[in-house]
Amino acid sequence: MQIGYYPGCSQEGTAKEYDKSLREVLKVLDVDPTEINDWSCCGATSAHVTSHKLSLALSARNLALAEKQGLKEIFAPCAACYNRLLTSKNELQEHPEQKYEIETIIEEKINNIPEIYNIVNFFQKIGKDKIAEKKKIDLKNFKAACYYGCLLVRPSGINSDDSEQPNSMEEIVKATGAQTIDWNFKLECCGAAHSIARQDIVVDLSKKILDDAIKHGANVIVVACPMCHSNLDMRQQNIKSKFSDFKEIPVLYLSEILGLALGFDKKQLGIDTHFIEFNLPVRNDVQEVSA
Amino acid sequence: MSHHNTTHVRTISDDITDITSQNPELCYQCGKCSAGCPMRNYMDDAPNVIVRYIQLGLFEKAMNSATIWLCAGCLTCSSRCPKNFDLAKFMDAVREVALRNGVKVKEKTILKFHKAFLKQIKNHGRSYEVGLVRDYKMATFDLFSDVENSPKMLLDGKLNIFPHNVKGKDKIKSIFEKTEVKKCK
Ligand code: SF4
Ligand code: SF4
Predict the structure, then answer these.
(1) Nearest-CA residue of chain A relative to B176?
(2) B70 contacts on A by Cβ (under 8 Å)
(3) Which atom of ligand 2 is nearest to the CA of B72?
(4) In B, residues 140-169, which contact A (CB 8 Å cutoff)?
(5) Is the ipTM of this complex over 0.85?
(6) CA–CA dist B43, B132 (Å, integer)
(7) What is the pLDDT of chain B when averaged over all its residues?
(8) Exposure winner among A136, A151, B5, B51, fewest CB in 10 A?
């Protein structure tokens, strides 16, 4: 399967392991991602805060480049990039006069904007049967809390998922043999981009999310966004120093938990670069599934 | 976009309507947005109150509020509004007009972070974390927060010492020049 790939800035920096694990997993699932040539930042959470046109234009440049490259479908593994690209696409399509203005600003024409997938929708498209078919290890001792955060399924109607009770990530994770837990905070905000400027808020919000997952019996949290990951993983250090009784919990990217089930080890997936050590046993001796 | 045929003095509310393509009058103040807002506890005014200020013409109150900067853009409000009012987008627009009007920003560190982030994009086309942290720390004089987490990221090769420059760097710069908000006061 061919697909256009918009990595987003984090994939080259703080979320290198997300990119690495994703590429490994896609190879096994016979997907060949084509990077958008010379892609640039979508403006993330900062452009739309200061200038509506800037945020539209930064996303539009990437959509125009993808179109020029002949890509009909693209996926963005970062939930924030996904949300920005899709929001811009919808706006450009709904407001022709705005589209014309943005085309002038970016000096590119936009005609057929590709279909845009987030990582969960994209794995749905690949199919859980395909994942199950390639699975080498059954992760049945995993009790996963799937964390969607804010930008994967909102605003309501952005994709087929329910914006209050989504279930798509659970479906994918279950294909690894893992159990998924029911919990209350899978859509609660972790404070997102306030991580540096208002660390105090992010520490509070992230702690509530982590506590709720633990309270409902999770032994791992699964995320689909570099920003969610850094707030829930890296910020556990800060949570621990503020709340001495806090119990830590590992946080995996969706691609990493899939990678473990496909037989890769922690190092191959970059899981060893997380702040919270991942030490759930991955028992290939328990249940070998013939490939 | 004002459609009055009598002489109408353009207001900040018109600017907001232009940016968002939606009329602030749509909101009927039920408060559902604020009930589910994750940042509400840290804000001064509730999010629906910001809409009310604009409806009443109390523009300074809205633009001076800490709320507009603390809004994390989580879209919970926009998803749940019974009137389909995109409050997150409205918040973006209030911030934008506050910047245009040179209002004194209540949450300075948050704006400094956004500015430091955007500066990397303007210069390189992609985010550059080392530059971001450097510029943010220089702007805030907050030199020692987060020092505990950086050595590990450096060791893991996650902090790139040099920025990646996209080929279309000049184009990106010109996008910024054409769209960046300039103070008009
Ligand atoms: S939920 Fe919608 S209608 Fe109700 S107060 Fe908020 S913005 Fe207004
Ligand atoms: S987008 Fe802003 S105002 Fe709306 S719920 Fe989220 S933080 Fe609150």
Answers:
(1) A54
(2) 194, 198, 201
(3) 7
(4) 140, 145-146, 148-149, 152-153, 156-160, 164, 166-168
(5) yes
(6) 26
(7) 87
(8) B5
Q: Which region among A46-50, A126-130, A246-250 has the lowest average model confidence (pLDDT)?
A: A46-50
**Going from the N-terminus, what domains does chain B have, and what CATH number goes with each?**
8-105 (1.10.1060.10), 107-185 (no CATH)
Two tokens, residue A51: 């200038």
The CATH topology of domain A128-290 is Rossmann fold (3.40.50)
Give dist(CA A252, CA A222) in Å, integer: 5
Q: Is the CB of B33 under 6 A from ligand 1?
A: yes
B158/A14 touch (CB, cutoff 8 Å), yes or no: yes
Residue with more model confidence, B41 or B152: B41
Q: Are A125 and A118 in contact (CB under 8 A)?
A: no
User: Per the structure block, which two tokens stand in for A207?
Assistant: 């702690």
- CB contact A156 to B (< 8 Å): yes
* CB-CB under 8 Å, A237 with B158: no
A183 C-alpha to center of ligand 1: Å? Answer: 27
Whole-structure pTM value: 0.92
Note whether A79 and A224 are within 8 A (CB).
Answer: yes
Phi then psi for A153, rounded to 5 degrees?
A: -125, 5
Distance from CA of A20 to the nearest CA of B (A): 12
Q: Is B123 near chain A, with CB under 8 Å? A: no
CATH architecture of structural domain A2-119: Up-down Bundle (1.20)
H-state helical runs in chain A:
16-28, 44-50, 52-68, 79-94, 96-106, 119-126, 128-134, 168-174, 199-215, 226-229, 235-242, 254-261, 266-269
Residue A160, pLDDT > 50, answer: yes
What local confidence, expressed as pLDDT, does residue A281 receive? Answer: 87
